[in-house]
Amino acid sequence: MGNKIRIDKWLWAVRVYKTRTQASDACKGGKIKINGISVKASQMLGENEIVEIKKEGFKITYKSIQLIEKRVSAIIASGCYEDLTPPEDLPQKNDGTIIMNAEFRDRGTGRPTKRDRRDIDKFKDI
């Protein structure tokens, strides 16, 4: 469509995030990198650049092939990037469903405190 596009708009258009706000928040949280450098939501993305995304405890790596501004179907969106994620970083799949390790707390311990949540997020590298 053009030479460059905002990274938050592209992430939303290719269906990495459900809303542009979520994409912007991921950029603000340091979860998005272009060519190894953390970026703001307003950073311009060009074709053939490497985009690293930390999402739900996984690290996803895409190469931008086509820049689109409008949100499209998942089939069309998959043609706009090349998935470069190494197999060891992919979530384990079984019959098309993702298996994730569930987290449990001992009964009666209550909800995690704010400090516990920070420690958990740091441990999970979210």
Structure notes:
The protein is 25% helix and 25% strand. By secondary structure, the protein is α+β, with helices and mostly antiparallel strands. Helix 1 (7-13) crosses helix 2. The radius of gyration is 16 Å and the shape is elongated.
Total helical segments: 4
Contiguous uncertain segments of 5+ residues: 93-97
Which range does the strand content fall in? 15-25%
**How are helices and strands ordered from N to C?**
EHHEEEEEHEEEH
Mean pLDDT, to the nearest integer, reads 84
Helix fraction by DSSP (H/I, runs of at least 4): 10-25%
What spatial order of strands do you see in the largest sheet?
A: 3-2-5-6-7
Radius of gyration: 16 Å
Largest sheet: 5 strands, antiparallel
**End-to-end distance:** 32 Å
Q: What overall form do the CA principal axes indicate?
A: elongated
From the helix content, strand content and strand pairing, which structural class follows?
Answer: alpha+beta
Number of strands: 9
Short account of what is shown:
With 126 residues, the protein is of the alpha+beta class. It has helices at 7-13, 20-28, 74-77, 114-124, and strands spanning 4-6, 32-34, 37-38, 44-46, 50-55, 58-64, 81-83, 93-94, 97-98. Strand 2 (32-34) and strand 3 (37-38) form a beta hairpin.
